[in-house]
């Protein structure tokens, strides 16, 4: 926190100086009648808008940085989101008060203006409403590793020649860790370590897999075994070897799913304590290799042959 404080104070001082200069310039222009007096309130309104947005951004960022070590990054992000939303509402109300827009005038102009602004800012409003929905319902939190799939961001899966060993399906989704939820976007750092900004309106209607919510996940591993090895012995030995792994929570399911003239394919479904599949699958494959080698050596020794 000590490292972030100078940056925060510097930003606040810089913003204060800029705002003060803007107020002085506006006062000078009005006092010496360089601009018509009727425009005074609008100039001060613009200064208020700029000042309000800057202060709201700085304060919300400070709230998020200060509360993260205490209540966690996810809760701190939610508090900062609410603070930013309340700040912007106050800024808008203050602007209307400065330019002296009465409630009756606002309501009278609200119909037409609301229609025009609603059509023009449909994307912005949908993202803000989507962000509020995400913060309230919490389908995911900051720090969660998620995969989301949606029709707006389709993926083209690679097409391989058909063969028995390629029967898996691909989820057309994007995977990464949620780093921040703002008014407009959800920021995700993908597995390739690239930040990805997704509009909240898209995330609010997407199908989301929250990997960090599961205590374990089932990892399927396929392995091709020569037909000269007894499948019953192979399955038994594979279960023994895979069950020895620390990341496996219970005995795996092993079954034959395909065959060819010289080999058969076994599928090992192991419940593993892992978020990513690849590290767990690597350990399972090594265990299966040890099991197959042990069965081959046992059959060779039993038959009086060299393995």
Structural summary, described in words:
53% of the residues lie in helices and 18% in strands. The chain folds into three domains: 5-101; 145-213, no CATH class; 217-302, Alpha-Beta Plaits (2-Layer Sandwich), CATH 3.30.70. With 307 residues, it is an alpha+beta fold. The longest helix has 32 residues, at 40-71. A hairpin with a 3-residue loop joins strand 7 (253-259) and strand 8. The protein has helices at residues 5-31, 40-71, 73-98, 103-120, 122-137, 200-204, 231-243, 277-302, and strands at 145-149, 174-181, 185-190, 195-199, 207-210, 217-226, 253-259, 263-272. A five-stranded antiparallel sheet has the order 4-3-2-1-5. Helix 1 runs antiparallel to helix 2, helix 2 (40-71) packs antiparallel against helix 3 (73-98) and helix 7 (231-243) crosses helix 8.
Oligomer: single chain
Order of helices and strands: HHHHHEEEEHEEHEEH
The low-pLDDT segments are: 1-6
Overall pLDDT level: 80
Counting structural domains, the number is 3
- DSSP summary: helix tally: 8
How is the biggest beta sheet arranged? 5 strands, antiparallel
Strand content: 15-25%
Can you give the helix content as a percent range?
40-55%
Walk across the major sheet and give the strand order: 4-3-2-1-5
Distance between the termini: 63 Å
Number of strands: 8
């Amino acid at each position: 926190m000590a490292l972030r404080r100078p940056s925060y104070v510097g930003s606040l001082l810089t913003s204060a100086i800029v705002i003060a200069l803007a107020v002085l310039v506006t006062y000078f222009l009005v006092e010496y009648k360089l601009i018509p007096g009727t425009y005074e309130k609008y100039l001060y309104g613009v200064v208020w808008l700029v000042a309000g947005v800057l202060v709201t951004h700085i304060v919300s960022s400070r709230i998020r940085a200060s509360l993260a070590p205490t209540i966690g990054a996810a809760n701190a992000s939610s508090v900062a989101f609410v603070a930013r939303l309340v700040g912007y509402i106050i800024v808008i109300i203050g602007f209307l008060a400065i330019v002296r827009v009465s409630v009756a005038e606002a309501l009278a102009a609200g119909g037409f203006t609301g229609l025009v602004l609603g059509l023009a800012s449909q994307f912005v409003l949908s993202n803000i409403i989507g962000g509020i929905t995400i913060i309230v319902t919490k389908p995911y939190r900051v720090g969660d590793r998620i995969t989301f799939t949606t029709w707006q961001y389709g993926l083209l899966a690679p097409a391989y020649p058909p063969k028995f060993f390629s029967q898996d399906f691909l989820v057309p989704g994007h995977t990464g860790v949620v780093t921040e939820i703002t008014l407009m976007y959800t920021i995700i750092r993908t597995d390739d370590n690239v930040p990805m900004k997704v509009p909240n309106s898209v995330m609010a209607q997407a199908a989301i897999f929250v990997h960090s919510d599961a205590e374990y996940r089932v990892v399927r591993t396929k392995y091709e075994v020569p037909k000269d090895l007894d499948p019953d012995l192979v399955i038994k030995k594979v279960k023994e070897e895979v069950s020895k792994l620390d990341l496996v929570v219970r005995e795996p399911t092993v079954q034959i799913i395909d065959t060819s003239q010289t080999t058969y394919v076994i599928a090992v479904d192991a419940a593993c304590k892992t978020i990513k599949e690849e590290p767990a699958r690597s350990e399972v494959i090594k265990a299966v290799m040890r099991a197959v080698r042990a069965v081959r050596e046992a059959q060779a020794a039993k038959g009086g042959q060299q393995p």
